[in-house]
Structure formats: C-alpha cells, structure tokens
Automatic annotation (TrEMBL):
Domain spans labelled HTH arsR-type: 19-100
Protein name per UniProt: HTH arsR-type domain-containing protein
Lineage: Bacteria, Bacillati, Actinomycetota, Actinomycetes, Micrococcales
Residue stretches in coiled coil: none
Single GO MF annotation: DNA-binding transcription factor activity
Signal peptide region: none
A Pfam family of this chain: WHD_DprA
Segments crossing the lipid bilayer: none
Organism: Kocuria dechangensis
Length: 116
C-alpha cells in the first residue's frame, strides 16, 4: 500500500494559490496575522494576545515565515528577543492570487443561469 501524501496539490492549481490556502485556510495562522496587522509584536505578546501555547505559536510562526507573510527581527537587548511583523505586500499578493483563482469566471456562470 502506498502512503497517502501529506499535501495534495491539484493539477493546474498555481503555487501561489496553494501558499495562500496554507495561510488563509488555517484559523491559528489567521489569529497570528490578525494580531500582527496592528503592528510588530514579541513572541510573548503573541502568546498573550492569541491565547496559543508557546510551542504551537512557534511552529505556526515558523510556517508563516517560510511562506513569507511574517518576518522576524532580533532586538538589540538582553536575550535578543525576536520582533515579528506582518509582510503586508506578501499578504496582499497571496490574497489577490486566491481571490482571482476562486472568483475567476464566477460572474460568467451566474450570467448564464448555471448552478452547481
């Protein structure tokens, strides 16, 4: 028996759409972005504001960084805590790609009276 792949990438689906789905299709990641849209935050602040366990938050921040929607900067203080902030232009790029993919041709279908 062949193992089931952990990520399925449908044929013809643009990579940007798959990346957008990883960002916007996850409620935990959305809660982190929601906090960061108000400005940069330290990890401790993100834990406090999202209510997420530190380990969960760390894993999700790493994924958001890998997807390019969150950036981190080391602070110049003792312990060098990381300051996280949202990458607005990357978020807009992914949201635009997702919107285009989902809505492309929708108005045409409605105009022809088609359903399902």
């Amino acid at each position: 028996m062949n193992p089931v792949p952990s990520v399925v990438h449908p044929a013809g689906q643009p990579d940007l759409v798959a990346q957008a789905a990883k960002v916007f299709g996850n409620t935990v990641r959305l809660s982190i972005i929601n906090v960061l849209k108000h400005g940069p935050a330290l990890r401790a602040d993100l834990v406090a504001q999202t209510g997420l366990p530190a380990k969960t938050l760390g894993a999700q921040l790493a994924e958001l960084e890998a997807l390019g929607v969150v950036k981190a900067e080391a602070q110049h203080s003792r312990g060098r805590p990381m300051l996280y902030y949202a990458n607005q232009s990357r978020l807009e790029e992914l949201l635009s790609a997702l919107s285009q993919y989902v809505l492309e041709g929708v108005s045409d279908i409605g105009a022809r009276g088609e359903s399902h």
